């Protein structure tokens, strides 16, 4: 069955960077895209960006442009989210999710809590 | 403005029908982009319950149904069950943001 398993919780200081991984199993990795979504405590879901399954192209929300990098290692069937210049407002659960092209997000990782605090 | 607006909360007795609305604009729902709905139980990741405005993934009970008209969409739960108590989010693509939007979420409470 399809599974997306994310790396563990992170505690970072303001100004640092964080890298979260998402290991995909149960399907052909490069046949689907991977999106990253975050959710601050008590807040709505917020789309961060995605990496296209076929060609590996990336697209980011304007809000995170310049601070975010999404990458993948097809041999490891893993996607990565890196967010730099962290501030307290970046404290949130970060989720990876699978989609077929621009379709719905049909499988989700369990989430990774990133806490930014001095 | 590129935003999806949902009623913050709805409630109903077990067995009743509740409806959750999602209002967008001409740059997202009104532009013809599909609306998808997710259920999020406390402390867990979201789960897809309706995709493509009206379709249910395998395994989702048929008491969940979706509709779309103009710049709005709705999720209905008919025959409300205790296990349906959760936060529900709508989602659509926005061509001004060139990205995906989520609604603010609706908390469903079973009385």
Total count of strands of chain B: 10
Quickly count the helices of chain A.
Answer: 0
- Average residue-wise pLDDT of chain A: 95
Q: What percent of the residues of chain A sit in helical stretches (DSSP H or I)?
A: under 10%
| SSE string of chain A | EEEEEEEEEEE
Largest sheet of chain B: 6 strands, mixed
Poorly predicted regions of chain B are none
Radius of gyration of chain B using CA atoms only: 13 Å
Secondary structure: elements and pairs:
The complex is a heterodimer of chains A (118) and B (111).
Chain A: E1 3-6, E2 10-12, E3 18-25, E4 33-39, E5 46-51, E6 58-60, E7 68-73, E8 78-83, E9 92-99, E10 105-108, E11 112-116
Parallel strand pairs in A: 2-11
Antiparallel strand pairs in A: 1-3, 3-8, 4-5, 4-9, 5-6, 7-8, 9-10, 9-11
Chain B: E1 5-6, E2 9-12, E3 17-23, E4 36-40, E5 47-50, E6 64-69, E7 72-78, E8 86-94, E9 99-102, E10 106-110
Parallel strand pairs in B: 2-10
Antiparallel strand pairs in B: 1-3, 3-7, 4-5, 4-8, 6-7, 8-9, 8-10
Structure commentary:
- The complex is a heterodimer of chains A (118) and B (111).
- Chain A is built from no helices and eleven strands.
- With 118 residues, chain A is mostly beta strands.
- In chain A, the strands form two sheets. In chain A, strands 2, 4, 5, 6, 9, 10 and 11 form a seven-stranded mixed beta sheet that branches. In chain A, strands 1-3-8-7 form a four-stranded antiparallel beta sheet, with no helix packed on it.
- In chain A, a hairpin with a 6-residue loop joins strand 5 and strand 6 (58-60).
- Chain A is globular.
- Chain B is mainly beta.
- Chain B contains no helices and ten strands.
- Chain A binds chain B through residues 35, 37, 44-47, 49, 59, 61-62, 95, 97, 102-106, 108-111, and chain B through 34, 36, 38, 45-48, 51-52, 57, 89, 91, 93, 97-105.
């Amino acid at each position: 069955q399809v599974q997306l398993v994310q790396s563990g919780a992170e505690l970072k200081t303001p100004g640092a960077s964080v890298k979260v991984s998402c290991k995909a199993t149960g399907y052909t990795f490069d046949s689907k895209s991977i999106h990253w979504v975050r959710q601050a405590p008590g807040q709505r879901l917020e789309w961060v960006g995605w990496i296209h399954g076929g060609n590996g192209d990336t697209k980011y929300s304007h809000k995170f442009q310049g601070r975010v990098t999404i990458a993948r290692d097809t041999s490891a069937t893993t996607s990565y989210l890196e967010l730099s210049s962290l501030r307290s407002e970046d404290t949130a659960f970060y989720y990876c999710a699978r989609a077929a092209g621009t379709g719905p997000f049909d499988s989700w990782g369990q989430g990774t809590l990133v806490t930014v605090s001095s | 403005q590129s935003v999806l607006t949902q009623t913050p909360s709805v409630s109903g007795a077990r067995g009743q029908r509740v409806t959750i609305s999602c209002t967008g604009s001409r740059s997202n729902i009104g532009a013809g982009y599909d609306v998808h709905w997710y259920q999020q139980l406390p402390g867990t990741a979201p789960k897809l319950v309706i995709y493509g405005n009206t379709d249910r993934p395998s395994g989702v009970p048929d008491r969940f149904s979706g509709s779309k008209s103009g710049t709005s969409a709705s999720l209905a739960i008919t025959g409300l069950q205790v296990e349906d108590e959760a936060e529900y989010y709508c989602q659509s693509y926005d061509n001004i943001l060139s990205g995906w939007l989520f609604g603010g979420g609706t908390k469903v409470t079973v009385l």
